[in-house]
Design goal:
binds uridine-5'-diphosphate; 12 strands; 14% strand; alpha/beta
């Protein structure tokens, strides 16, 4: 894992100096992150890098998990879908299950942070433990058009926080508390994003029996309907009528996502009989994901809803041409026809993929612009700085802090 000074060649000495200065101001404060899973999905991805880097520069950052059973995570997944605006029926029983598990977590979790930093809706109810400390809710979801019943229920907790953070301007909501706009980030030095030798890339392709005979289109995502894996297969099929290619659909589950097994079954069914579709169930293996992204001619992210879409940033950082749906935080990362291609349908996605496969110079230019955009806006050093400014601002509520 990269040490803070190893980021200097990428982001410059002044950026790292700023981080150390801010960390100095936070001495003595404990920042307690709490979420619901340590593996799978963007939140865990970020915390795995954020917490050690904060510690290294002198901030006492820690990370705890809430506990929940199958029923609880089935309900929070429903909340997740409902907040993303998909139509889901949420019943009183669902709310009761959420409250029951929350009650046990409220009793069992040791809340010791000066700043308690709650990620996503699952641990929201812990706010009942609020004392003199500061509480921040970090929403990683696209809540631009949430189901009102679910949002109304969760507002009962959110309103008691000191502040909320959203990833994109369109996600902010009318709230009686301070709101901050902070986009997520990727770590350029992590195993997921660091440079790899061709030998390593080839060995991963070999391990998964993926020949290099045809261009590879890849989507890396949890098997979740909102990532539209069936739309990805349909897109590939439309492309393949004109350009011979392979599809890699790779992902795992997350321990707080109970739907993935069912979705994976649907994906396998849709892909059956096509030997050029490679469905990979990856254990948490960042080097392999990195290698698959690097081996691809085009990266797809055909999400129906997306909080931010770290996979898009990861692909762009590798200077890959990306075709992605124009949803949620993806539009912060891709300027259409400049740093990638945005789409709204299977037809649009397949048209864009065909265009990129048949115009390698254009594809390369989009990828290079994308890498520059990620470098300037979505690396972890920017994210660390904004979080530290936010923590400091909690102690100066009257001052306006420009992030
Ligand atoms: N990811 C992973 N293994 C998988 C699927 C995804 O490590 O099998 C990673 C992916 O590389 C990215 C994160 O999980 O870093 C997913 O974040 P994103 O914002 O794209 O979507 P989320 O899963 O949070 O909805």
């Amino acid at each position: 894992m990269g040490k803070i000074d190893e980021y200097i060649p990428t982001v410059g000495q002044p950026t790292i100096d700023d981080l150390r200065l801010l960390a100095e101001r936070l001495k003595g404060k404990v920042i307690q992150n709490i979420n619901s899973t340590s593996v799978g999905g963007g939140v865990a991805e970020i915390l795995h890098r954020m917490v050690p880097l904060l510690k290294e520069i002198g901030v006492d950052a820690r990370w705890d998990l809430i506990k929940g059973g199958e029923q609880f995570f089935a309900v929070t997944k429903k909340f997740h879908n409902a907040l993303h605006g998909t139509s889901v029926e949420i019943t009183q029983k669902d709310f009761d299950i959420f409250l029951d598990t929350s009650r046990s977590n409220i009793e069992e979790i040791n809340v010791y942070g000066d700043v308690v930093f709650i990620h996503d809706p699952q641990p929201l109810a812990l706010i009942k433990n609020k004392a003199e400390n500061k509480w921040v809710w970090r929403c990683h979801i696209d809540v631009s058009e949430p189901d009102q019943k679910t949002w109304g229920f969760l507002r009962g907790f959110i309103d008691s926080y000191d502040a909320a953070i959203f990833s994109a301007p369109a996600f902010s909501q009318k709230l009686p508390i301070r709101q901050f706009l902070i986009s997520p980030s990727i770590d350029p030095l992590s195993d997921k994003n660091k440079e790899l030798s061709q030998e390593t890339i080839d060995s991963v392709l070999k391990k998964y029996d993926i020949p290099k005979d045809k261009p590879i289109i890849t989507q890396i995502s949890r098997f979740d309907r909102l990532k539209d894996p069936l739309g990805v297969i349909e897109t590939y099929k439309q492309v393949k009528r004109y350009i011979d290619c392979r599809l890699v659909l790779a992902g795992g589950g997350a321990s707080d996502d109970p739907e993935s097994t069912e979705v994976l079954g649907e994906v396998k069914e849709a892909a059956k009989d096509d030997l050029d579709i490679h469905i990979l169930l990856l254990a948490q293996n960042d080097i392999e994901i990195n290698a698959l992204q690097r081996a691809s001619a085009v990266i797809l992210q055909k999400s129906i809803r997306e909080g931010f879409g770290l996979t898009v940033a990861e692909a762009l950082w590798k200077a890959k041409p990306v075709v992605a749906s124009n949803v949620g935080g993806i539009s912060l990362q891709i300027a259409h026809k400049y740093s990638g291609l945005l789409c709204h349908s299977v037809e649009g996605a397949s048209f864009a993929v065909k265009q990129l496969l048949s115009s390698p110079d254009y594809a390369r230019r989009l990828g290079e612009n994308g890498r520059e955009h990620i470098k300037n806006n979505f690396l972890i050093t920017r994210h660390l700085k904004e979080y530290m400014l936010l923590f400091l601002s909690l102690y100066h509520p009257e001052d306006i802090v420009y992030l």
